Amino acid sequence: MPPPVKDRFCSFCGTAYAEPLAYPRTCPNATCKVTVWANPIPVSVVLVPVRSEQGTGLLVVRRGIEPRKGMLALVGGFLEEHETWQVGGAREVAEEVGVTVDATKLTPLWFTSTEPRPNRVLLFSVAPTLERASLAAFTPSTESQERGVIHGPQGLEDVFAFPLHIQAARKWFESQGLTGPHRFTPV
Ligand SMILES: [Zn+2]
C-alpha cells in the first residue's frame, strides 16, 4: 500500500484533487471550489528557570517518544484551537513534567522558524523562576521519561534533541551571565 497522503480529497465535498498535489489546493468541483492551505504551525516552548543550591538552570524533559527519543528538550508543544501561546505553553509544562507555571507571567524570549522546512514557528518564552524544593513529585510517562534541570550552556549538542532548543537555552544562559559546561540533574 502506498503511504497515506494528507488532503487528497476536499474535506468539504469529498472530490479528489487533481495531481500533482500541491498547496494551496482548490477543489475542482465547480459548486465547491474551496481552497486549503498548509500553513506553518506555532509551537509554544517555555523555558522554566529552576533555582537550587546548585544555582539556577532550566527545566528539561527526557523525551519518551520519537523523534530523538531519550534526548533532552525544553518543554512545549502544539497549541489547541482555543489557546493563546501563553495558556498552551503553561498547559504543556503541566502535562509533560507536572510543573505549574503562571501563564500570565510568561515573557517572550525569541521566535524562529524551523529549518530547513519552515513548517513550524517556535515561540520561546521564559517563566518566572521556581525553587527546586517547590516542584511537585514527577511521575514518568510514555512521553516524558525523566524530568531534570540543565545547568550551563556548553556541550548541549551532546544531550539536547533539537538545535533550536539549544539556541534558545543559550540565549537565556547568556542573559543570566551563566557559563561553563552543561550538567544535568534529575528533579
Ligand atoms: Zn470541494
Automatic annotation (TrEMBL):
Domain Nudix hydrolase intervals: 41-175
Catalytic activity: a 5'-end NAD(+)-phospho-ribonucleoside in mRNA + H2O = a 5'-end phospho-adenosine-phospho-ribonucleoside in mRNA + beta-nicotinamide D-ribonucleotide + 2 H(+)
Domain of life: Bacteria
Keyword Repressor among record annotations: no
Cofactor dependency: Mg(2+); Zn(2+)
Keyword terms: Hydrolase, Magnesium, Metal-binding
UniProt family annotation: Belongs to the Nudix hydrolase family. NudC subfamily.
PANTHER family attached to this UniProt entry: NAD-CAPPED RNA HYDROLASE NUDT12, NUDIX HYDROLASE, NUDC SUBFAMILY
The protein's name: NUDIX domain-containing protein
